[in-house]
Amino acid sequence: MRLPHNDTTNGWANALPPRSANPALSGDHRTDWLVIGAGYAGIAAARRLAQNEPDAAITLIDARAVGEGASARNSGFVIDLPHNVGADLNDPEAQYRALRLARAATQELDTLAKAHKIDCQWSAQGQMMAAKSAQGAAVLDGFVAGLDALGEAYTDMDAAAVSARTGTSYYRRAIHTPGTILMQPAALVRGLADSLSGNQVHLFENTPVTHITYGDQIVAQTPNGTITADKAIIAVNGFAPHLDAYKGKLFSLQLFCSMTRPLTDEEHQSLGSPADWGIVPAMAFGGATIRYTKDRRLTMRSQFRYRASGKLTEADYTAARTLQAQQIKSRFPQLPPDMITDTWAGQITLSQNFAPGFGQPRKNVFTAVCQNGVGVTKGTISGLLAADRATGRDNPLLADMLALGEPSTLPPRPFLDLGVWAKMKWWEHQHRFEA
Ligand SMILES: Cc1cc2nc3c(=O)[nH]c(=O)nc-3n(C[C@H](O)[C@H](O)[C@H](O)COP(=O)(O)OP(=O)(O)OC[C@H]3O[C@@H](n4cnc5c(N)ncnc54)[C@H](O)[C@@H]3O)c2cc1C
């Protein structure tokens, strides 16, 4: 079983004060519900189980400290739109389903962030999907057609409008959609975990599950003890391929992100003193996802790697940092050459047909995995709905979720490795105009 490990590279976490993790499990523990994985999906599942069964004992467990996984390493976009708007105009019902799910997740997170006063730079600034090249602008035409078909609001921004809003003249056009929320992901996921109801949800951190025995009872083995549960929800996202139900159906990519120090007053003014903003690229494999945060840092997310082992080398990090320093320079030539303080990586997990791993592989086991790269909203809603499904609570969104289908079977390795590699190279080539 491949297990996650803590590292200290995540800039979002490093920008926060230290947090004391809950103790790791020691000894044998009995619970009604076991939730494995404390990212957006697992935390949402544990919270919803507590709401649905207020007398049940719920145990949430993570291999790492909360705020170390992908949930804390992402670019901090809470995206309220289907990821592929405009991709399939022939199936508007699929788009509406994805929209309802994403909106419900955004609403849930908005309510929790405000109710628990989570200090995570929560900001309703929307997002700009931006293009530098004519090819990228053509992709935006398809995006606009999709938004029109859905009846969604947007603003078409020309180069001058993008420059006035962001301080970079790099882009020729952007489409602003108002529903996306921007946030500090390590602060949000910490706040979500720490606000879980104290006595009912028992959180063990730094406690990897190394083996699971299934039966009428589920027994999870950890390095210093066991957990015996009646039912379980598995929310380990990228670490799910070892589960029988998803063997040969999921694969992971590693993504890199860099963060700068906060800009000085003069540097901030050189950008036109903008409010915080977020850009996603029109062409994902060539462009970059960029944030200007409330505390005046730039973050730059670009570069994908496919490492079946999950292991990255020093050279991978150096290459990402060098590229991202160049990308900051080409967009903001007015800033000093290398302001990057942190470069980190995280993984996203995908299925070939982009279906989620929302399943029930056994009578008493449910899964909320495979968020296809948009896990802030998809993870949140899949965890919440897994808990509703597991407790028999009626929720009309369950039909939307189940209609997304199941992950299809991938080609066996090494054909899978070759196929992913070739596809990534092809996309990088096609998207090179946006670099
Ligand atoms: C650089 C980057 C940028 C991204 N940007 C965005 C973005 O802007 N917006 C967006 O929506 N998504 C984004 N994503 C994707 C998003 O971060 C993920 O989809 C999301 O974190 C998935 O949430 P999750 O709860 O399903 O899984 P995770 O966050 O991966 O949580 C799973 C948890 O399970 C734990 N675990 C695994 N195995 C075990 C085990 N054996 N025992 C115990 N615990 C275990 C892990 O430690 C982990 O904490 C980005 C990802 C990356 C890497």
Q: Just name the CATH architecture.
A: 3-Layer(bba) Sandwich
% residues in beta strands? 15-25%
Instruction: State the helix count.
Output: 12
Structure summary, number of beta strands: 18
Describe the structure.
The protein is of the alpha/beta class. The protein has a single domain, classed as 3-Layer(bba) Sandwich (FAD/NAD(P)-binding domain). About 35% of the residues lie in helices and about 25% in strands. It contains 12 helices and 18 strands. It has helices at about 10-15, 40-50, 70-75, 90-115, 135-150, 160-165, 185-195, 265-270, 315-330, 375-390, 395-400, 415-430; strands at about 25-35, 60, 75-80, 125-130, 155-160, 175, 180, 200-205, 210-215, 220, 225-235, 250-260, 275-280, 290, 300-305, 340-350, 355-360, 365-370. The protein is globular and about 60 Å long. The mean pLDDT is about 95. Flavin-adenine dinucleotide binds near residues 75 and 346.
